[in-house]
Amino acid sequence: MASSAAEFASICFSTEGLPEPDRFEFWREVLGRAITKFEIDPVPDSSPDASITLRALPGVDIASGAAAGMQYRRTPALIDSDDIVLFVALSGAQTVDQIGRECTISAGEAAVFACAEPGLAIPRERQHRLAFRTPHDVLAPMVGNVEDAICKPIPSTVDSLRLLVSYAATLEDVDQPLTPAVANLAATHIQDLVALAIGATRDAAAIAEGRGLRAARLKAVKTDIVSNLGYHDLTVGAVALRQGVTPRCVQKLFETEGRTFSSFVLDQRLARARRLLSDPRYADWTISSIAFEAGFGDLSYFHRAFRRLYGATPSDIRQGTLGF
Question: Which residues lie closer than 8 Å to 209 by C-beta, 6 or more apart?
Fold first, then answer.
């Protein structure tokens, strides 16, 4: 049966709105035993409080959320797969205990957990975390002996881990379900990044770096650009410095799409200007103010570039939108 976009939508759960006496039982039965296959225990002298967003992709399940007042046990009765989970602590600290090993990860760090073995995951405080669950058979050819990585902290300085978190954030910002093609591509990129973070073999690393790592780095660069469009000193050098790469690396990323850094910046600035021109909330802004807000310093250049891309002047767009 062909997959539909609805299969790749995100699902959110929260204890908010539930009567406090019912919160823990709901979380234990629905999120614990039924979905994630963890036995959830309350933490003494604390009130259970949690929210989580789940997204299932082909070969990857992603969970993102925050929780307090609960700890998680993988018991023999709940073992139903040999999946591998990569826990990432976005804030707070968490201890992972499995196969006779124990490690504590802090904000930005990660740890590997094997679903085929009993174990514990214990948040030490209210924590915001990410989890990526992947079948063992998918990771094993890329990593080698996955078991060697269990309960060994992965530092926040690992580049592939940082990009994995950034990539997941872009998926979380997508409001509508992913198409099957996009879902498959995203899953492949995530699998690549998980393998690199854990420790991919040389051959697998070469493939992953040219596929998932490159895609994630390009997404991070584009996000950086869009977040800084209003700054007139938005240069390839400035973006490269923030991303921890060379300017040539940034340029090569855009070359894989057959375009340049400058053309992407220009298109994004023009798109931002058009959105502002079409928004009634900015009806009292002058066109020059909108051009400046979008990052243009030369008004004549803005008008020429805008007309070349949209086949209309900024005034035409504003009048058409507002019905003048």
Answer: 196
Nearest Cα to Cα of residue 265 among 250, 278, 280: 250
Q: Supply the pTM of this predicted model.
A: 0.81
Tell me the C-alpha distance between 226 and 293, whole Å: 13
Nearest to 214 by CA among 228, 193, 239: 193
How much of the chain, in percent, has pLDDT values that exceed 70? 96
Model pLDDT for residues 26-40, shown as the tens digit of each residue: 888 988 899 889 999
> How big is the CA angle at 234 (ends 280 and 247), to the nearest 5 degrees?
145
- Residue 228: helix, strand or coil by DSSP? coil
Q: Report the amino acid identity of residue 294.
A: A
pLDDT tens digit sequence for 221-231: 999 999 999 98
Give the CA distances from residue 50 to residues 55, 234, 255, 280, in Å, rounded to whole numbers and listed in that order. 17, 39, 43, 38
Q: Where are the beta strands (DSSP E) in 16-167?
A: 39-42, 49-57, 60-68, 70-74, 84-91, 94-98, 101-105, 110-114, 119-123, 127-134
C-alpha distances out from residue 132 to 65, 127, 190, 197, 264, Å? 12, 16, 8, 12, 31
Give 154's DSSP letter.
Answer: B
Helix/strand/coil for 282: helix
**Hey, CA dihedral for 110, 115, 120, 124, is it positive or negative?**
positive
Pair type for strands 70-74 and 39-42: antiparallel
CA 201 to chain centre: 24
Q: State how far the alpha carbon of 236 is from the alpha carbons of 135, 223, 227, in Å.
A: 38, 13, 14
The residue count for the chain: 324
Instruction: List, in sequence order, every residue forming a beta bridge with 95; answer none if it has no partner.
Output: 104, 122
Helix, strand, coil tally for the chain in percent (to 5): 50, 20, 30
H-state helical runs in 57-212: 136-143, 159-172, 180-198, 202-208
